[in-house]
Structure formats: structure tokens, C-alpha cells
């Protein structure tokens, strides 16, 4: 027993020294850090905290160290970059475009844009930028309108009734939007459709597993995770998604072949309104990607797009329910723009300037992608004389950046869409507000998200008045991959007219 104990102690010391030696250059960087313990570094600060407390802690760190702060857990070391100028420098540098494996492996989508290694990402991102250009997004507007209309009729049953969780409904709405625009699944088919429900469950389950892995890295290292029931169920759901997407790929391929590949990005189905769905864009370039790569790309777009937009929309509705003056002003604008039966299109949506400010303020207070990571692919001079070694992880806490008093003023915690009046925006550094990240590896779907959210809000606010018992000052957030509310998004509705 005694020998085993001594052996384990030696092993722990040896491992610790190895880690220290490997990270010596990084740990010795001339960057401030909270007090660290030998071997475990700052792990003791995090252990035992729940998701809400963890977010609070790293936010406090960002306030305490307004430029840079280094933290490390055992052998994993990261630099939190807080200052907008430094953020711009890091996120625009080619050498910092890598994603650290440890932070993104949990998506299990090596070929998808979000988690792909730089060499693959660089090639694929250039290709997919085309799928998200405005002329393509504009063709999705009828789908967004139809889906938002369905959401409106779905929640009509709650009028003058009990409070309900609006997120349960926005989440199905945005997944339907993405299934239609990326896979060509018809919205009417998706309604009450068993397949859609299974896809919904599988996407939710696999995202939940990724969140669990991210938040409990010490409990769930790969070896332990792989013997848990969740791992096996996650594999099953992942396989279901892979089979489902393969079936769609095969079906779309057949349609395109029947049309002699002459689709110019149009879906190829004669009953279809002619929008350029994501999968057709890929299949029109047959040979460029393997089926596995196509599946990874599609699952990535689905997963990265639906929950973020749904959560942001739910946050926005809740904030409007809490701020009746903002809700009324927004409805006035919607009525002004769409009063005389103006069509919903890119031009009319661009007139919704106040709505734009409301959505931005929502994403400031509650950025749904709260913490993101990058890795240096070579030594990188961040500031004069400060060389960041190759393989260092940068951490960006967008949630904290959006709450800095030196940027947003003493009222940084207050919800105020006027923060985005042009004269106020002009006073700030462009990297003070980055809910969609910044630089070339930013969110490819940011315009998709803004257009779809504007349409959902327009439809909902024209029909319903929203209220809630949840007070703004009682809203608490936690980071579980995305930024979630600690409670439900409970709102009540009544007919607006
Ligand atoms: C309010 C809604 C959204 C927010 C706040 C948001 C935020 C973000 C952020 C912060 C990133 C950077 C992640 C990182 O570097 O780790 C990102 C990346 C990404 N987002 Fe979004 N997103 C939203 C909606 C969407 C939508 C609707 C889609 C697709 C239809 C989408 C697809 C993606 C993809 C594919 C990436 C990876 C891009 C790359 O690395 O090249 N997102 N998003």
C-alpha cells in the first residue's frame, strides 16, 4: 500500500514537472495572473463552481485585468484577451486563426467550419462564403416568413393564458428555418413530422453532450466519457443524424442528376420556389468534398445556427417584455414600415433601424456565443517585446467585454438600445461589440441570423403584446456552450389588436 502511494506521489510530481516544462515558456510570459498553485495552476478557482459561477469568475477576472491575464489548469494554459485593440490584433492575425483542439473536439465535427483545423478551414470558408452572400439570403425570405407565421399560430393558444417558455417555440422555429434553407426540407412536412422531431431530438442531444464535455473537462476526459451511457446514446444520435443527412444527400444528388446538374444553385425541384439551398451549393461542385465532409458541414451549420438564433430571439422577447417602453417604440416602427402592407424584403427590413438597435443591445447584454478560443500557429508578437509562443490558446470572453464600464459607461448593466445610436457607436472601438466574433473566422451566419430574427420579431410583435413576471435585475446567465438563462424564458401574451 505504502509503495503504491509513494509511486502515485512520484507519478503526480513527475507529470506536473513535465507539464510545467512543456508550458514553461508560456507560464513565464510577462502577463499578469491571479495567484496559482503548484502543478494545478488555477484549477482550484474553478473546481466546485457551477456554470453560472464559472462565468461570473472569468468575467470578474476580465474586469480585474483589463488587458491580458494568463490562467492555467495543470498543463492547459490560456491567455484571456480583454482589450478591444488587442482583440482586434489577435483575431485579425493569420497566425492566430487556429482553433485549439481541446476546446472544439467536443463537437466531433472535424470537417465543419466551426471546429476545423486552419488548413482545411481556410479552403472551405472561402467556398462557403458564397452560400451566405446577401443575394442568396434574400431568396430565403419566403421560408423565414412562412416559418415565422407558423410560430405565430403555434403560440396563439397561449393568448390570455398562463406564462409559457418562448424558447421552446423559437427553437423549433429556427431549426425548421435551417432545415429548409440548408437541406430543402419543406416546412409543411416538418410540421408535426416524425422525422423532424427525431432530427430535433438528435441535434439537441448531441449539443447537450458537447456542452457537458466542455463544462466538465476534468470529470469527462475522453477515456472516462467513453464508458458512460451518454457516450453510447450520443453515438446513436450522431449516427442517426449522419444517416439522415446521407439520405438527403443521395436524394438531392439524384434530383440534380435528373436536372442534368443544371441548377445554378437552385434546388432543382420543380415545385420549389427557387431558393439556393446550402446542400445544392455543395453538390453543384461535385468532387470537391467527400460525403463525410458534406455531412460534417451540414451538421455544423445546423448546430451552429439554430440554437444561437433561437436563444437570441427568446432573450430579445424577454427583454422586450421587461421593457414595455422599448416594446411600444419597436411596434410603432414596425407599423410605420409595414403599415401599408409593405412587403417583407431586404429593403423594408433595412428600414427597421430601431429593431436593429434592439437586437444589437440584446446581443450585447446576452451574447449567445459568450466565450471563444483561438490558438497561435507560430510565435506571435502581440505587443512590442511580448512574444506569444506557438501553440498558445487565446480566450475571448465576449460576455465580459460587452459589460466593461470603461467602454459602455456606468450604466453598462442597463438594457438601452440607444447604445447603438450612430453617434454612440462612433465613439467606441469597433471591437467593443463583437457578438459574432471578429476577423476572417467570424460567424458566417451573422446576416442570416439578423434577417431571420427581424422577421420573427416583426411577425410576433404585430400579433402579440408580451409581458413577464421575471424582473430584469433577476435575469441570471450561465455559459453552457451558448449563453443560457438560468431560469426559463417565461412570458405571457395577449392579442395586440
Ligand atoms: C444570434 C445568432 C448567432 C450568434 C450570436 C453567433 C455567434 C457566432 C460566434 C461568436 C462564432 C465564432 C465561434 C468561434 O470562433 O468559436 C460563430 C461561428 C459560426 N457560426 Fe454563428 N452565430 C449565430 C448564428 C449563426 C447562424 C444562423 C449560422 C448558420 C446559419 C451560424 C453559423 C456559424 C458557423 C458555421 C460558424 C463557424 C465559422 C467559421 O469558423 O468559419 N451562426 N457564430
TrEMBL record:
The record's listing under InterPro entries reads: Cyt_P450, Cyt_P450_CS, Cyt_P450_E_grp-I, Cyt_P450_sf, Cytochrome_P450_Monoox
Q: What is its cofactor? A: heme
Query: What GO molecular functions are on record for this protein?
Result: heme binding; iron ion binding; monooxygenase activity; oxidoreductase activity, acting on paired donors, with incorporation or reduction of molecular oxygen
Q: Which UniProt keywords apply?
A: Heme, Iron, Metal-binding, Monooxygenase, Oxidoreductase
Reply yes or no: does the keyword S-adenosyl-L-methionine apply. no
Q: Where does heme bind?
A: 443
Family in the record: Belongs to the cytochrome P450 family.
Protein name, UniProt field: Cytochrome P450
Amino acid at each position: 500500500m505504502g509503495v503504491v502511494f509513494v509511486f502515485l506521489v512520484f507519478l503526480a510530481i513527475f507529470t506536473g514537472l513535465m507539464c510545467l516544462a512543456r508550458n514553461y515558456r508560456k507560464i513565464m510570459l510577462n502577463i499578469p495572473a491571479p495567484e496559482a498553485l503548484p502543478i494545478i495552476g488555477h484549477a482550484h478557482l474553478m473546481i466546485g463552481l457551477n456554470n453560472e459561477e464559472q462565468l461570473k469568475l472569468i468575467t470578474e477576472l476580465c474586469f480585474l485585468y483589463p488587458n491580458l491575464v494568463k490562467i492555467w489548469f495543470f498543463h492547459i494554459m490560456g491567455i484571456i484577451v480583454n482589450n478591444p485593440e488587442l482583440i482586434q490584433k489577435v483575431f485579425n492575425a493569420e497566425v492566430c486563426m487556429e482553433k485549439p483542439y481541446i476546446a472544439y473536439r467536443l463537437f466531433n465535427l472535424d470537417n465543419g467550419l466551426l471546429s476545423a483545423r486552419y488548413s482545411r478551414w481556410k479552403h472551405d470558408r472561402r467556398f462557403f462564403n458564397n452560400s451566405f452572400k446577401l443575394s442568396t439570403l434574400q431568396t430565403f425570405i419566403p421560408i423565414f416568413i412562412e416559418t415565422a407565421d407558423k410560430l405565430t399560430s403555434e403560440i396563439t393558444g397561449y393568448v390570455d393564458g398562463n406564462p409559457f417558455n418562448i424558447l421552446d417555440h423559437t427553437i423549433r422555429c429556427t431549426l425548421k428555418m435551417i432545415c429548409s434553407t440548408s437541406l430543402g426540407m419543406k416546412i409543411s412536412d416538418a410540421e408535426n413530422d416524425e422525422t423532424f422531431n427525431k432530427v430535433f431530438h438528435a441535434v439537441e442531444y448531441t449539443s447537450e453532450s458537447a456542452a457537458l464535455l466542455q463544462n466538465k473537462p476534468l470529470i469527462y476526459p475522453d477515456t472516462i466519457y467513453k464508458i458512460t451511457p451518454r457516450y453510447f446514446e450520443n453515438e446513436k444520435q450522431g449516427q442517426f443524424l449522419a444517416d439522415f443527412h446521407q439520405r438527403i444527400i443521395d436524394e438531392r444528388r439524384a434530383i440534380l442528376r435528373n436536372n442534368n446538374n443544371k441548377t445554378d444553385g437552385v434546388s432543382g425541384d420543380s415545385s420549389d420556389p427557387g431558393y439556393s439551398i446550402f446542400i445544392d451549393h455543395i453538390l453543384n461542385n461535385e468532387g470537391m468534398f467527400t460525403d463525410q465532409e458534406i455531412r460534417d458541414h451540414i451538421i455544423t451549420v445546423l448546430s451552429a445556427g439554430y440554437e444561437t438564433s433561437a436563444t437570441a430571439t427568446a432573450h430579445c422577447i424577454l427583454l422586450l417584455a421587461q421593457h414595455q417602453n422599448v416594446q411600444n417604440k419597436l411596434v410603432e416602427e414596425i407599423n410605420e414600415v409595414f403599415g401599408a402592407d409593405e412587403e417583407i424584403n431586404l429593403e423594408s427590413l433595412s428600414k427597421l433601424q430601431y429593431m436593429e438597435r434592439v437586437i444589437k443591445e440584446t446581443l450585447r447584454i446576452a451574447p449567445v456565443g459568450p466565450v471563444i478560443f483561438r490558438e497561435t500557429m507560430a510565435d506571435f508578437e502581440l505587443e512590442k517585446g511580448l512574444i506569444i509562443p506557438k501553440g498558445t490558446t487565446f480566450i475571448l470572453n465576449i460576455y465580459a467585454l460587452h459589460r466593461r464600464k470603461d467602454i459602455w459607461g456606468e450604466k453598462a448593466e442597463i438594457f438601452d438600445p440607444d447604445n447603438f445610436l450612430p453617434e454612440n457607436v462612433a465613439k467606441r472601438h469597433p471591437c467593443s461589440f463583437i457578438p459574432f466574433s471578429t476577423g476572417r473566422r467570424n460567424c458566417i451566419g451573422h446576416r442570416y441570423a439578423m434577417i431571420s430574427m427581424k422577421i420573427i420579431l416583426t411577425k410576433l410583435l404585430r400579433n402579440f403584446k408580451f409581458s413577464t413576471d421575471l424582473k430584469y435585475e433577476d435575469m441570471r446567465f450561465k455559459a453552457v456552450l451558448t449563453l443560457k438563462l438560468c431560469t426559463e424564458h417565461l412570458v405571457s401574451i395577449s392579442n395586440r389588436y
